[in-house]
């Protein structure tokens, strides 16, 4: 089955770099316009079915701005690419640009947009602080995207294990508040965790540190 990808990614850019010039959507002085013009001249603009978006590190602590401009860009995509069925934002992790927890939570909540399915880079192990290795990094993300795309766009059978777990509720489970339980949604999924996975979690507003973690059924426990 022939598949076409049009790459418009540019490293080290903020989300403002990717916005549309509303007065001239195919303005070649903008990254958005160059992508749209290429797609139009190739005869693909009305055939593009999905968008992959993996960016956010360069917006650092600008969580509100990132969220506002993503939602604007999302509306522009739906306007200029009429056949879009799904948009796949990838939630970034800590590292270059120091994207805040608030920014990453804003990315998580993009799931509320009607055509968005959000993935996360948090489970990719081959991270050097900025980028990822191929094995256990970009290759793994590609496989995760493929598993979801084949369900969403090519009518494959849904498997809950292919979708990111969604935290429904978090609460202390003991009186001295030294243990937190996080309840996860995907009821049909089988959850597994890596050794030392708890080091990917962070507490804000306290000097306390997470020292251990484990998983049981659909609950994640942090000590």
- Count of discrete alpha- or pi-helical segments spanning 4 or more residues: 4
Percentage beta strand: 5-15%
Which term fits the overall shape?
Answer: globular
Cα(first) to Cα(last) distance is: 48 Å
Across the major sheet, the strand order is: 4-5-7-6
Order of helices and strands: HEHEHEHEEEE
Average pLDDT over all residues? 93
Based on secondary structure, the structural category is alpha/beta
- Number of DSSP strand runs: 7
Largest sheet: 4 strands, antiparallel
Q: Spans with pLDDT under 50 lasting ≥5 residues?
A: none
How big is the Rg?
Answer: 19 Å
Helical fraction equals: 25-40%
Furnish the topology, listing elements before pairings.
Layout: H1 31-41, E1 50-53, H2 63-80, E2 86-91, H3 101-108, E3 119-120, H4 134-152, E4 167-172, E5 180-184, E6 213-216, E7 219-222
Parallel strand pairs: 1-2, 2-3
Antiparallel strand pairs: 4-5, 5-7, 6-7
Helix pairs in contact: 2-3
